[in-house]
């Protein structure tokens, strides 16, 4: 039975049989049961099928966090389609790159992204607007009654340390095991409700949707993060779990003031980088059950989470690898002893099988079944992970990952830019924001404003450097590798 | 990552790292944390290793439900040994057959089974008595840090409908998926405690031990079933879940009298065959949360369980197949429509890969990934399974099918019937006719004729027992399952 190609019943379809009447999704006070969700997914699947979308195709999805988006996602799984989840804040050129690179045959989007859709249509992509399907009468599509765990379900792009973004392959098995690893740590209560205010095109949001159908629990979906609405829902709607990043938690705590969360609220799942101790201590005082966690697109969300009994004692740690996963710290090609920092290396059935069409990068990141995260951390003498730095140079701004190399790549294309370096700088609102340091081909050849405008053509606005500082040269090491962390020193000198 | 040979961290070792201080096991008021359990398992592994037991060996285990037995089981997994779980009620010749048939190289047992061990030693089996290892000083054995899901962990013998017992292969993956399927239905609370009073050499008991290390929950182990002690523990020790069969539940309810279980007791998992409606209705009145379930050695315990929200509405149903599993009813080589009885056919990653060294029987039972249970049942129009009978127990009388469970269900409704068993007996006219065996609540409370009249109110006359024989107790196996075929012996004794 095990072995060759292991499969499981189609999760949502099965869930709609097991608990048809349970609430699956709430969005803007509309409620959908698992049976409703299944029916919506079937209808969307039929619509897409009538347009020629078939099993094995790759389809881009550019959509906001709406109820329809959830149905459409499941519809695409029903059809056996690989879904490329597109960040809606990307520029038209970035979107085009990801669709081309993933060899997507179709794009599904919605009216609010009309401009992007037009641009992409003009560049040879067959694009659909969801609103155009309304009232269309389609035959019934054949849907998958089983998911093959080894097959790719989703593709998400990340930039990594260098060069162009890479498409991370996430299989049905990756998503399944991620959900299972999480439930064996966090438990599962009959009335669990997960509040999703993070984008569903990120693994943090998508993994909530996956858990919903695997666990049979309700998701309350917000189309964006608003701390007041979040606090209202936690206090009044029976929310038991929410996924947040530091910047969100900061704003929630500030908005909460002297009020409290109900005792049924059992998990504040805090990811997206190390959290400041002061914030964690604040939460401790307010009896907010914070579970720090560490994960990434390549691990299909959490891979390390702090167990309930240690949430206070090991403040600041991301915890231990979940039951199905393993971890060690590598330093100079060997396992590092306790308290020695090195590269975090992980393994588990939730870990990606690689990057689409990137044999070399895949080979570099995945060795003997171990995934080299590029992140820096150490284990204490009890095996608790402390993450020090994400991919050393990664900038995390309001929960979004920004890779300096991508900003540098764009700046370097400008005819007057000789070379560029980017780094994250502290920001009270976003945690970090990107700054860039530029060496020009000749002095005053271009202004800061002009360069920012240039960046905006290619980079989502959150990636566009908030400041561009002109310098004579960039700090480099002996092998001429850019030392991004020394850019901070440059700023001080410049001032 | 997925694919070739998927593996997971050694469960107990991993659990001892994740939650070392949590209580794993309580036995006769001794408590063992997960770290204690890991240390005990390591020590036993070292002892066995020093005696020459190696990865790949097959080892018989003949032991009662003691704490040591749990440690020894894990020790054998640590060594990568296949464990043959031996029923302690077997005769010496039956034990010898199972050890020979499974090609076991070693037997591990304890002092209380000295006679069996001597007999088996005299027949060429290398046997150890656990008490002989005390105070022995051994080096440290190399233990498995990962379990390969496809590898066989345990072998359990079942007789099936005909012929010699067959060794059911249960892989690490089977046990893992069984635990995962269960948790996605029953949920998982931080303080869950599973009371185990069923033998650990049966899948009902073994699966509790597996869940304990996979979920990180406490097991309270009893060496035998005693309704008073069980009720005491449920009422005083924070038990949240217990696995029972009908006969056990009957005795528990009778012993409970007017008292109640605490509200934290959340699951009475009732397996081992169809339960009489009267008992389920009794439980409903007492607010006891009964989850009927259906499973077998070949499915590594539960495969079908009634979801919480239907436990009352679908009284008498075993529920729907757990999330990772599938099921249909086959009749005359085709899928049967709703309400048509036929053979129950199942599929899922918890299903055995076959019988050891029995290519033909494996081939017959497993076709295209589907396992033919030999059991009879039907699905209602909402897909709920109603198990009617084990095929072997089917009574065929004048061409009509009679399911013993139906007769037993009717008899159990009578206020003076404590429990009942029915079976087919040869008849020159009809081929077979049904007889019933009844244990009364008190002697002479009701006559045979009165009971027959009672039955006729609910059963077609061909289903009404031709004889009703009053007995002191019904024949049951180690897990308290009614042995209908042994009812024939009762008749001979009675005469």
UniProtKB/TrEMBL annotation, chains A, B:
Keywords: ATP-binding, Ligase, Menaquinone biosynthesis, Nucleotide-binding. Residues 13-356 form the AMP-dependent synthetase/ligase domain. It comes from the Bacteria. Residues 406-481 form the AMP-binding enzyme C-terminal domain. It catalyses: 2-succinylbenzoate + ATP + CoA = 2-succinylbenzoyl-CoA + AMP + diphosphate. InterPro entries: AMP-bd_C (IPR025110), AMP-bd_C_sf (IPR045851), AMP-binding_CS (IPR020845), AMP-dep_synth/lig_dom (IPR000873), ANL_N_sf (IPR042099), MenE (IPR010192). The keyword ATP-binding applies. Pathway: Quinol/quinone metabolism; menaquinone biosynthesis; Quinol/quinone metabolism; 1,4-dihydroxy-2-naphthoate biosynthesis; 1,4-dihydroxy-2-naphthoate from chorismate: step 5/7. Its EC number is 6.2.1.26. GO terms for molecular function: ATP binding; medium-chain fatty acid-CoA ligase activity; o-succinylbenzoate-CoA ligase activity. GO terms for biological process: fatty acid metabolic process; menaquinone biosynthetic process. PROSITE patterns: AMP_BINDING. Pfam families: AMP-binding (PF00501), AMP-binding_C (PF13193). Belongs to the ATP-dependent AMP-binding enzyme family. MenE subfamily. Converts 2-succinylbenzoate (OSB) to 2-succinylbenzoyl-CoA (OSB-CoA). This is 2-succinylbenzoate--CoA ligase.
């Amino acid at each position: 039975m095990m072995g060759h190609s292991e499969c499981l019943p189609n999760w949502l379809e099965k869930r709609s049989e097991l608990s048809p009447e349970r609430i699956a999704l709430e969005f803007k006070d509309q409620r959908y049961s698992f049976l409703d969700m299944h029916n919506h997914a079937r209808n969307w699947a039929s619509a897409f099928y009538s347009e020629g979308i078939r099993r094995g195709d790759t389809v881009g999805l550019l959509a906001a966090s709406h109820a329809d988006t959830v149905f459409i996602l499941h519809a695409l799984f029903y059809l056996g389609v690989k879904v490329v989840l597109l960040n809606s804040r990307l520029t038209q050129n970035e979107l085009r790159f990801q669709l081309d690179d993933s060899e997507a045959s179709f794009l599904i989007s919605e009216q609010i992204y009309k401009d992007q859709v037009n641009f992409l249509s003009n560049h040879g992509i067959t694009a659909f607007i969801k609103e155009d399907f309304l009232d269309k009468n389609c035959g019934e599509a054949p849907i998958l009654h089983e998911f093959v765990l080894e097959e790719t379900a989703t593709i998400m792009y990340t930039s990594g340390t260098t060069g162009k973004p890479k498409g991370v392959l996430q299989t049905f098995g990756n998503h399944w095991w991620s959900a299972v690893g999480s439930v064996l740590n966090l438990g599962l209560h009959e009335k669990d409700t997960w509040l999703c205010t993070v984008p569903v095109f990120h693994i943090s949001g998508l993994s909530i949707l996956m858990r919903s159908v695997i666990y049979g629990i309700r998701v309350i979906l917000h189309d964006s993060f608003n701390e007041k609405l979040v606090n209202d829902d936690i206090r009044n709607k029976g929310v038991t779990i929410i996924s947040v990043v530091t910047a969100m938690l900061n704003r929630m705590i500030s908005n909460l003031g002297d009020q409290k969360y109900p005792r049924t609220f059992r998990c504040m799942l805090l990811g997206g980088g190390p959290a400041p101790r002061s914030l964690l201590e604040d939460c401790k005082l307010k009896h907010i059950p914070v579970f720090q966690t560490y994960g990434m697109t390549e691990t299909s969300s959490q891979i390390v989470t702090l167990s309930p009994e240690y949430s206070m004692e090991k403040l600041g740690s991301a915890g231990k690898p979940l039951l199905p996963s393993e971890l060690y710290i590598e330093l100079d090609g060997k396992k590092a002893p306790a308290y020695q920092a090195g590269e975090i290396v992980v393994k588990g059935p939730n870990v990606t099988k690689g990057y689409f069409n990137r044999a070399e990068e895949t080979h570099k990141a995945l060795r003997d079944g171990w995934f080299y995260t590029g992140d820096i951390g150490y284990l204490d003498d009890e095996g608790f992970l402390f993450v020090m730095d994400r991919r050393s140079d990664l900038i995390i701004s309001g929960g979004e990952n920004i890779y300096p190399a991508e900003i540098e790549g764009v700046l370097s294309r400008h005819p007057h830019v000789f070379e560029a370096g980017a780094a994250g700088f502290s920001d009270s609102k976003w945690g970090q924001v990107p700054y860039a340091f530029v060496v020009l081909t000749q002095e005053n050849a271009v202004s800061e404003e002009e360069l920012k405008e240039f960046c905006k053509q290619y980079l989502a606005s959150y990636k566009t450097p908030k400041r561009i500082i002109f310098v004579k040269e960039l700090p480099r090491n002996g092998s001429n590798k850019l030392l991004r962390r020394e850019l901070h020193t440059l700023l001080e000198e410049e001032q």
